């Protein structure tokens, strides 16, 4: 009995947390058995078990893999493009005051607006193929990256920069020795935000004007009242973003271990 | 939730899972269930924007100064005094910061909901103008929305300094 109590108190956090989720799932599963549902409502209702079954069925039919493949290409290409553009631009705007003054208004405005409003425009410009989604992922993910890189460069210790400069370093060497290592935690935090935005872009981009991809799968399933397929798709997205977020968080804590103060993250 | 440790343990993983996942993926389902009217969009906006509030309030309550709590306790303050005099004021800046994040997510909800199925609204206007190749009107609508978004965000930032002038350094993005 005492050992049990010890076991509990050591793992209280995970037991309570995991138990609550489990409890909700069980309640959800049992609900139709306990509460009689009206016919109209049961059309929209599904249970976790049916969701798993639907997911398995799609997996066997190779449909999930197909949609997943397209979605992940869009995600990776868009995010990659955002990194290629966002990082250097963030570094440059952080170092150069003129460039900062030029770019800042755009960044503020675009960051405040949900970038998804450009979706119809991108569909017009880039067609309903994969490129319009890559662009929407790109424009969604590039701003968090840019802003966080900028923030990291701005927060660099002036003393360190002056020391390196006194020893005769040029701008490139300052960047490499002081600025870049200092901004790494910020960049990783930005990456975490960017991943969230990128997934959002993939999902919404595929809702409209797509013929493949997980978002498309969800949208068509919803219009066909296949609620279990919708939830299967949502569960996949959930799992993916949880895994990605956790992975980046892990990297974040590994990288920022040597610094005393925590980088601003959200 | 921030104050009661066990409640925090219990709810945190669940909310984190929901917060980290793209809930917009539920948009088609919400629209199928609640119809194409105003209500479905409200539900969507709610689902997207409630979590920043929860998390920031949580973080705010957690970061309340223990010393202040002990002071109120020592002077005989009850649970109610704790909430009103210490926890709420020190949490307020976090709540407003959360509101700013929620604002952005709420806008996403509106736009996606209106792109998807609507007969009115700015998102609907943008997608309809796009479908009919009326680019000037479409850009006008986009700019309008941009201005609104910037005004709201900046307004929220102003509100932050007005409502909680005692704590302006806390910045979460």
Short description:
Helices cover 81% and strands 0% of the residues of chain A. Chain A is mostly helical.
Report on the structure:
The complex is a heterodimer of chains A (266) and B (173). Chain A has a domain at 64-220: MetI-like (MetI-like fold). Helices cover 81% and strands 0% of the residues of chain A. Chain A contains twelve helices and no strands. Chain A has helices spanning 2-10, 12-34, 39-42, 48-60, 63-95, 97-112, 119-126, 130-154, 158-166, 171-207, 214-223, 227-255. The longest helix of chain A has 37 residues, at 171-207. With 173 residues, chain B is an all-alpha fold. Chain B is built from seven helices and no strands. At the A-B interface, helix 2, helix 6, helix 7, helix 10 and helix 11 of A face helix 1, helix 2, helix 5, helix 6 and helix 7 of B.
Layout of helices and strands:
The complex is a heterodimer of chains A (266) and B (173).
Chain A: H1 2-10, H2 12-34, H3 39-42, H4 48-60, H5 63-95, H6 97-112, H7 119-126, H8 130-154, H9 158-166, H10 171-207, H11 214-223, H12 227-255
Helix pairs in contact in A: 4-12, 5-6, 5-8, 5-10, 5-11, 7-8, 8-10, 9-10, 10-11, 10-12, 11-12
Chain B: H1 5-20, H2 27-34, H3 38-62, H4 66-74, H5 79-116, H6 122-131, H7 135-163
Q: Any key phrases for this structure?
A:
heterodimer, A: 266 residues, mainly alpha, MetI-like fold, 81% helix, 0% strand, flat, disordered C terminus, B: 173 residues, 7 helices
CATH homologous superfamily designation of the domain at 64-220 in chain A: MetI-like
In CATH, the architecture of the domain at 64-220 in chain A is: Orthogonal Bundle
Quick one: overall form of chain B?
elongated
CATH fold naming of the domain at 64-220 in chain A = MetI-like fold
**What top-tier CATH class of chain B fits best?**
Mainly Alpha
CATH architecture of chain B: Orthogonal Bundle
Radius of gyration of chain A: 23 Å
Give the domain tally of chain B.
Answer: 1
How much of the sequence lies in strands of chain B comes to: under 5%
Mean pLDDT of chain B: 78
Task: Let me know the CATH homologous superfamily of chain B.
Answer: MetI-like
Mean pLDDT across all residues of chain A, rounded? 81
Distance between the ends of chain A: 42 Å
Structural class of chain A: mainly alpha
Order of helices and strands of chain A: HHHHHHHHHHHH
Largest sheet of chain B: none
Q: How many helices of chain A?
A: 12
Question: Count of DSSP helices of chain B?
Answer: 7
> What percent strand of chain A?
under 5%
| Number of beta-strand segments of chain B | 0
Q: What sort of overall outline of chain A do the alpha carbons produce when their principal axes are compared?
A: flat
